[in-house]
Amino acid sequence: MAAGHPSLVVDRGGPRVVITTDVGPRILGVALPDGTGEGLLSSLPDLHIERDGWPRFQLHGGHRLWAGPEIPETTYLPDAGPVEVARTADGVWCSYLETETGIRRTIGVLPGADSVVVQHRLTNDGSATAEVAPWAITMCTPGGEAWLPRYTGPGDAHGVLPNGSLVTWPYTRLSDERLTLADPIIRLRAVAGAPAACKIGIPGRAGWIAYRLGGVVLVKRASWIEGATYPDLGVSLECYSGGDFLEIETLGPLVSLAPGAFIDHQETWSLHAVDPVASADDVLRELGLTGD
């Protein structure tokens, strides 16, 4: 059991992943064999999204898959039914069919000795074409700091055209004390009880996003597809900091998904034990994380 849910553990000697089997699909926890990392993913059994006239969406915490872009009428549909579980030689696959939209959301956990591949799939089981983007969202416990790498590689041959962007939301304030617009890593802290939310997004050309909580760092790697159309003004890495949790998010391209078609979006997770008192710059250097 994990956070009150029946669950199963996927373990191949490297990072250990806990998946719930009654809602979601959700990843509820990740840790190294010695327990390092336990508690990094948030556990929020009572947190929900509820608005007048809409069904109640239970967040639960941990890691989930949504279909972007964010449209409250469909994004916040509850996923309270049991998931279908399939075990393969490589790992475990969990899926849930959203009957209201016809979109089937599947998360596959494929563990290895040093990292875990988390495969996300949106399948159109409905009868109409759907405009969707895979949106992989990891909810983290407050008290740490998220790192988003601003791409510092070349632009055009003359270096005069823009090569990146910073996307904000209506509630984002660049003066927010949790937000540090530094080079090459943008930082956003997670402060428990913070009264307001802050969210930013950037193109993911550097291919990773991370969260550090004390002596552990979770790094999520996801490929940027040059020339693809991404939601949210063209970003594929996003971070949301609220009072109960912080989310590190990656997105796949926005596509027209015909009935029967699917789109995959892969993240590779690695978990690293670090010196809890080391500076962020030292840890980034130790892990080889840059904006290039």
Characteristics:
5% helix; 292 residues; 10-stranded antiparallel sheet; single chain; globular; 3 helices; Beta-galactosidase, Chain A, domain 5; mainly beta
Which residue ranges are poorly predicted, with pLDDT under 50 across at least 5 consecutive positions? none
Global morphology: globular
**CATH class, anyone?**
Mainly Beta
Please provide the ordered H/E string of secondary-structure elements. Answer: EEEEEEHEEEEEEEEEEEEHEEEEH
What's the architecture in CATH terms?
Answer: Distorted Sandwich
Mean pLDDT: 93
Q: How far apart are the first and last residues' alpha carbons, in Å?
A: 41 Å
What's this, in brief?
This protein has 292 residues and is mostly beta strands.
List the helices and strands and how they pair.
Layout: E1 7-10, E2 16-20, E3 26-31, E4 43-49, E5 57-61, E6 63-68, H1 72-75, E7 84-87, E8 92-98, E9 103-111, E10 116-124, E11 130-140, E12 145-149, E13 167-168, E14 179-180, E15 185-189, E16 198-202, E17 208-213, E18 216-221, H2 231-234, E19 237-241, E20 246-251, E21 255-257, E22 262-273, H3 280-287
Antiparallel strand pairs: 1-2, 2-3, 3-6, 4-5, 6-11, 7-8, 8-9, 9-10, 10-22, 11-20, 11-21, 12-15, 12-17, 13-16, 14-15, 16-19, 17-18, 18-22, 19-20
Structure description:
The protein is mostly beta strands and 292 residues long. The chain has a single domain (7-287), classed as Beta-galactosidase, Chain A, domain 5 (Distorted Sandwich), CATH 2.70.98.10. 5% of the residues lie in helices and 45% in strands. The chain contains three helices and 22 strands. The protein has helices spanning 72-75, 231-234, 280-287, and strands at 7-10, 16-20, 26-31, 43-49, 57-61, 63-68, 84-87, 92-98, 103-111, 116-124, 130-140, 145-149, 167-168, 179-180, 185-189, 198-202, 208-213, 216-221, 237-241, 246-251, 255-257, 262-273. Strands 1, 2, 3, 6, 11, 13, 16, 19, 20 and 21 form a ten-stranded antiparallel sheet that branches. Strands 7-8-9-10-22-18-17-12-15-14 form a ten-stranded antiparallel sheet, with no helix packed on it. Strand 8 (92-98) and strand 9 (103-111) form a beta hairpin. The longest helix has 8 residues, at 280-287. It is globular and about 45 Å long. It starts with 6 loop residues before the first strand and ends in a 5-residue tail after the last helix. The model has no long low-confidence stretch (mean pLDDT 93).
